[in-house]
Amino acid sequence: MIRDIRNNPDFLAALLHGRRSHMAERERLEALCRIRTIRQFESEISPGSQTDSIRKIQQRLAQDLAREITRIAARLVPTDADLIRWLAVRFQVENLKVLLRSLLTGIRPAAMLPHLLPLPRELAWNVETVETTQSMEDLAHLLPQGPMRKSWVEAVAVYEGENRPFFFEAALDRAYFRELLARTEALTGDDRDLARPLVLQEIDTYHLMLVARGVFIHRLEAKILLPLHVTGTGISHERFTAMLTDPDLRAAAGRALGRALDTLPAAPTEASEPAMPVDPAGLEALAWNRFLRLANRAFRRSHMGFAAVVAFVALRRVEIANLITLSEGIRVQLPEEQNRARMIPRRNLEAAHV
Predict the structure, then answer these.
(1) For 5, 53, 255, 315, which has the most beta carbons within 10 A of its beta carbon?
(2) DSSP code at position 229
(3) Distance of CA 136 to CAs 17, 94, 119, 198, 208, Å?
């Protein structure tokens, strides 16, 4: 349990550095990749727990992170807590996506309650409120009051008549990222300089995936996707517009170098050589690699500063993503080499700097 450490950032940072040493990464992650059964996997990551349900294990991993974030935020000074507390709202957003999918497929939201991630009290919804939700407009009442709720109402109006979750999920992400960026910009000094690249990375990954999936998978027109852009990041509105109209995904992804990507899959050096395929999943993995690099840098450079707290949450998110991916690999009995190849950072992407 994290003790009351308000106004004692040195103690908090020291505590987080200690917690970091126990994360599932490097050698420990390598060892977990060799596990072949769910029971053994669970005993390694959560000693004392007993369940054969992959879904419950994954829910607990995410739930633990949500609780950890809210505990940290509760013990920070208000100006710092605002940003950390917002990072936990991400879990609310993911729950809301579950409910909107149910509405779009004709399933009552009440039936989806068992599938929602259990959240700390300050993030949890009243069961009766969920059960009375019957429309996209009703979902607004589950959102935090302010810019995020307003953005959702606007999106419902813009995409009225749409029955594909893609638009509405992207609209939720946009609303969340707008507020996240605003709270990040309110930081000052080194904290802002170190935390801001992490936040921009996440938002520009969202921009890149809008292009990769919206244009090159769903074949959507640029004018439909343009309203989903978030202002103030490395991928400007002008650059985003160009990406939406590029002839192929490699060209579009090239515009994200230095913003959402450090590298691209290698291009052929001779006409006879095939290029490595550029696909949304591969680009997303490369974006996660950059996210991890920036998180490690912020954690190391901030050391005892508030940016180390932001970086710690980012590192924990990578850890949880790896553990959930690994649990799925164990469930379908993927070979050890394939499990390892799916971890972040992805080392099997033969990338070349451009």
Answers:
(1) 315
(2) -
(3) 42, 15, 22, 31, 26
Say which residues have a Cβ less than 8 Å from residue 111's Cβ, sequence separation at least 6: 102
Radius of gyration of the CA atoms of the chain, in A: 21
CB 147 within 8 A of CB 179: yes
Q: With a cut of 80, say whether residue 51 has pLDDT above it.
A: no
- Tell me how crowded residue 331 is: count the other CB atoms within 10 A of its CB: 13
Q: Residue 181 pLDDT > 60, yes or no? A: yes
**Token code pair at residue 203:** 């938002």
Q: Is the predicted pLDDT of residue 20 greater than 70, yes or no?
A: yes
How many angstroms separate the Cα of 348 from the Cα of each of 35, 286, 293, 325? 20, 10, 16, 16
Give the tens place of pLDDT for each residue, 83-129: 999 999 999 999 999 999 998 888 888 888 888 999 998 888 888 88
Label residue 268 by pLDDT band (50, 70, 90). Answer: low
Question: Percentages helix, strand, coil for the chain, rounded to the nearest 5?
Answer: 65, 0, 35
Q: Is the pLDDT of residue 1 over 50?
A: no
CB 326 within 8 A of CB 349: no
- Beta-carbon contacts of 336 under 8 Å, excluding residues fewer than 6 positions away, are 33, 34
**How far is it, in rounded angstroms, from Cα 351 to Cα 267?**
9
Decide if 285 contacts 212 (C-beta within 8 A).
Answer: no
- Cα–Cα distance measured from residue 351 to residue 349, given in angstroms and rounded to the nearest whole number: 6
The span from the first CA to the last CA of the chain, in angstroms, equals: 46
**Residue 351: φ, ψ to 5°:** -105, 155
Q: Which residues of 152-178 are buried (b: 16+ CB within 10 A; e: fewer)?
A: bbebbeebeeeeeebbbbbbbbbbbbb
**CA-based torsion, 110, 112, 114, 119: positive or negative:** negative
Residue 352 backbone phi and psi in degrees, to 5: -130, 135
Backbone angles phi, psi at 257, to 5 degrees: -65, 135
Taking the C-alpha atoms of residue 111 and residue 126, their distance in angstroms, rounded to an integer, is 15
Q: Which residue stretches of 162-279 are H helix?
A: 165-185, 189-214, 222-225, 237-244, 249-254
